[in-house]
Amino acid sequence: CSFRTKLAAALARCRIKHGALSIEYILPEAIRKQEQRASALPLCVWINTFKISPQDVFRDLEKKGFTRVKSVSDFDRYTYCMDQHCHDVLFFPSSLKDELLNLDLFADCKLLLQDKSRSLAVHSAQALLNTDDDIIVAHVGSHLTIAHMSALTIHIVSRIFVCGVKSSAKAAELRTLFSHMGCENIQLLHEDFTEIGPRDPRLQKAKVILLLPQCSGLGVGNPVDFILTEHRDAGLLRDLFQGSVSEDKLSNLAERQLNELMHAMKFNKVQAIVYCTCSIYPEENELVVKKALESGVKGSKVQPYRLIPPFFSTCSNSESSEVFFKIEPSEISSGCFLAILAREKDSSESVSVKDTLARAAAKGLLDNIVVRKPKGGVKKQKGTQRRCNIPGSCTELKTAEFLRHQAVSKVKAEGSMFKTVSNAQQKNVTRPKSCVQLKKSTDPVSDTALPKGPQHTPRLSPVGQACDRPALAGKARAEQERVALKPAEIVLPPVMAPSVRWHGSKPRLP
């Protein structure tokens, strides 16, 4: 209490000295304007799909009187909207912050408040992963970023390796937070990212690196809160109060960012790197990426890196060039920079069908695939439906349904081809009555004129068997509905008419 009293007294003396009406007026004018803009920014939250599905969130908000609108410009008190880039991110009016934090959805960690730049980064990394691929998070940063990454990757059986957890107390704190949020696929590493070798046996299945380096953070709406929650360099607070970052500080940040990006490029097994900052300076953004690519670092006996376009579509407040994704700070959004580096494709490298479908499902290309309901009881159907309401949780079901749909289409096509061939062959075979037509004689042959032999049931000739095939067509079609037929080529014998010789006016059969 004595320290608080001394601090309050010091602030009071400083306020009187500068003639400030309140403590806020002690801050530079640029910082005050930035604070005002930050207080008016829409609240960005993401859905923790470990605990609740988006559909349940929408129903819960509707019961509480919230109305869903198309965009931020349509906000009117108790309203919210979906983000244009991330399917699990919502926006709320800033005036509802206190009321939202008191809702059960926030108290139970079902909705989590975080800057949008982190959601863009984790969604970019998740879109690059295949089944069983691991990911490296180069910095601890906020535990919310790691938890969001975990929620997006749990359905593809990925592990998340988080670097830089130095103390056991910090590790225990993070494990408690992750357990409370439902995360189970996170592994903590005490080494810094630059201290880990590219051939570390623990990271041989890692295919993507998420690099969120320390930056000036001037692109976010509230830089002070960002530095504290992301556990960034507190020395930046002095520069922020001055309204800008000094050249020496900016140069040191850019050099550190370049070293980390070049170190990430040395991992032979890694196929892609997501680089994201909240800076407005090109020295920390485009220039760092270009210098890293020009350095020629790529690892041993692997393909070099190149920039690939972002996975997000452009919107009114974003600038998406061919290789970079940028959002400039505005009245409705914070600013950020994002770049994706991927290794050039090897012409001899082949991607499995399973990985291709998994990546397509991650990008939402299989959302139109409807998973067939199981034939079990009602409880089983409800459980399946609830799991599929979670984005990405039914990726394997969608993949299996897609493959089943392709197999059924192939069987139907083959059955149709078989039916066409059979019909064509049946048309070429006619009944015996039409095959052999004898002229009626005025003196027909009597039964006594024909040679007698043992009486027995006559066997059908190949021609007769062919003529009786239409009678069995119905049965064959019934069996075809139950058994998937394979295409087969049927060769029927040629139609041979009995030979007839004429002696005089009476026919004589051999």
Written overview of the protein:
With about 500 residues, the chain is an alpha/beta fold. Among the domains are: about 1-40, no CATH class; about 115-345, Rossmann fold (3-Layer(aba) Sandwich), CATH 3.40.50.150; about 355-405, no CATH class. About 40% of the residues lie in helices and about 15% in strands. It contains 18 helices and 16 strands. It has helices spanning about 1-20, 30-40, 55-65, 95-100, 105, 115-125, 145-155, 170-180, 225-230, 235-240, 245-265, 285-295, 355-360, 380-390, 395-425, 430-435, 460-465, 470-480; strands at about 45, 65-70, 80, 90, 110-115, 135, 160, 185-190, 205-210, 270-275, 305-310, 320, 325, 335-345, 500-505, 505-510. Strands 6, 7, 8, 9, 10, 11, 12, 13 and 14 form a 9-stranded mixed beta sheet that branches. Strands 2-3-4-1-5 form a 5-stranded mixed beta sheet. Strand 15 and strand 16 form a beta hairpin. The longest helix has about 35 residues, at about 395-425. The termini are far apart. Residues about 375-395, about 430-465 and about 500-510 have low confidence and may be disordered.
